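mind reviewing these C-alpha cells:
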Amino acid sequence: MKRLPLLVVVFFSVTSWAQELSTSQFTARFVKNLAAASPATKVTVKGPLELQIEPQSGDIQSVFLDNAYRTYAQDPKAIEEVLRRYVSSTLEPQQQQKQVDRSRIIPIIKDRAWLVEIAHSLQSRGLNSAPENVFEEFGDELLVVYAEDTLTNIRYLTRADLKESGLTQAQLRPLAVQNLGRILPQVEIHKGALVSMITAGGNFEANLLALPDIWKDLEQHVDGDIVVAIPARDLLLLTGSKTPGGIAKLRELAAKAYRESSYQLTDTLFVRCKGRFIKLPAQ
C-alpha cells in the first residue's frame, strides 16, 4: 500500500474544534427533515448517526450518517443544504443503487459482539438466516467487516455485493487496506506521558488497526510491544508494554471511554505480536 505521511507528534492538550451541533443533535435534525420529506417512512434511531429506516417498500435499511455529519462539520452554516442532499440520497429507491465502487471499499474493525447484535436484529424482524455481511477474523476477539464508504453513506457489503463486484474474499483485505490508506485524513499521534492517542479525522481511528504500515512506524515511539485500546470506533489509545504504569493507565482510560461512548467497541486491551493484535493476557 502507499505509505502514509509521516506521523505528526502533538500533545493531548490540542484543542478540538467544537461543532454547533453534537452528533445526537445532528441525528435528530436529520430525522426531522427525513420525516418531512417522506412521512410514510418509519425511522428508528439506533444511536448517534445511526438509523434504521423502513420505506413504503417494506425493506428495512441501516443508515449511517457519518459522512453527512463530516460534511456538515466542514461548514456548519450549510446544514440545510447538507440535510437536503443526504435525505434525498437516503430516500433513493433501493433498486437504483449503483454497483459497488471497488475504490471505496474499506475495512472496519468490529468486536465479536457485533455478530450477536446483527443476529438479534434479524430475529427481531422474524428472520433466522445468518448475517449476510462480509467479514473475516482479525486476531482473538476482533473482526474485519468490509463496507463501501460512499459520499453519502457507509454501507456494509453483503455476499451478493461481493459476487456482483467480481471480487473474491482473498482479494478484499489488500484492496480495502489500500483504499483506506488512500482516503485517510492526516494521521496524528497525540503523545502523553503514559498513554498516547492516535487520531484520523474522528471516523477511522479503530480501523487503523488494519493498516500494517502505521504500526511499523509506531514501534519506534513505544517502550516494548505496542498495546492498544479501541473502546470506541472513533478512539484509539496506545502505550508500550514496558512503559511503567502504562498498561494500568490504558486499562483505566479504556474502561471509562467504553462506559461513556455512544460508539462502543470493546474495553479489551490488545498487544501487537508478530504483526497481529492479540488479547493482552490478564495481569
User: Anything to note?
Assistant: Helices lie at 23-37, 66-74, 79-90, 113-124, 159-165, 169-183, 212-218, 246-260. Residues 185-279 form one domain. Residues 1-19 have pLDDT under 50 and may be disordered.
